[in-house]
Amino acid sequence: MNRSFAYRASLVLMAILAALWTLFPFAWYFLVSLTTPGHIPRRFSFPDVITFQSYVAALLGGGTEGTTANVSILPNLINSFIVAGLTVAGCTVLGFGAAYVFSRGRSTVLSVLFNGLLVIRMTPAVSLAVPIYLMINSYGLADTHLGLSLVHTMLSLPLAIWLLKGFIDGIPTEIEEAALIDGASVPQTLRYIIIPLAAPGIAVSACFVFLASYVEFMFASILSRGTADTLPIAIAGYNSEHQTFYNEMAAASFMSMIPLFAFFYVAGRYMVRGLTMGAVK
């Protein structure tokens, strides 16, 4: 009994230490966002004067004149949602179709193609920067939501296919065969049987794709020239040549997390079902 209690207590202690280690940078950065602009706390403690001036400056603008700290992040937030939404839609539609073919198809060619997705996934994205820029620029899609979402779709599509195939593999083929025998067509089988059963997997895939697109920085900085700047570009803009606006940067970073919390809260029910699907047979 005592040994069991000591074991559980040690696990709880390690979990608390891990949580403190993980959350400490966020807590300190949050204190920076509450400090008067231009000041950074030298120790981990509440500032003498708590102010939300940095949040107002980041949300509505009004920071230092002539710098990006004077510009609101709202347009960048809208751009991030548009690009991430287009990316999720593209990866969901293309990924589900490809995953269904890979799951139900039985051929050497499909097996080789599916395993080849790993090679694409392991390729460093920076090695593709030049050809992707030349291609997007030649089609006139630079600094557009569509051009950036196409690049994000290309980067996230292998992961979406891998995730969705695993969920479709868990759906018995006998259910489809029974529906076809009862007179349902293949599109009807997909719409009324496969897609509802694979909904948790689609939610999991959508969450990962949304997160990857929402925080992506490298291609957003290469392909955007002001019109399609996303949130990571706006947050990086607080680092100017002569000064870094840490307070506004911290405030913008925390406000950028709010849509993610809302998105994962809504999709959390499906994510839990999706991540645990197949754990119990």
From TrEMBL:
Keywords: Cell membrane, Membrane, Transmembrane, Transmembrane helix, Transport
Location of the protein in the cell: Cell membrane
GO cellular component: plasma membrane
GO biological process annotation, one example: transmembrane transport
Main location as per UniProt: membrane
UniProt-recorded name of the protein: Carbohydrate ABC transporter permease
PROSITE patterns for the chain: ABC_TM1
Family statement drawn from the similarity comment of this UniProt entry: Belongs to the binding-protein-dependent transport system permease family.
Membrane topology of this protein: Multi-pass membrane protein
The UniProt record lists the keyword Transport: yes
Stretches that traverse the bilayer: 12-31, 81-102, 109-134, 146-168, 189-215, 249-267
Pfam families listed in its UniProt record: BPD_transp_1 (PF00528)
InterPro entries xref list: BP-dep_ABC_trans_perm, MetI-like, MetI-like_sf
Positions of the ABC transmembrane type-1 domain: 77-267
Gene3D superfamilies xrefs: MetI-like (1.10.3720.10)
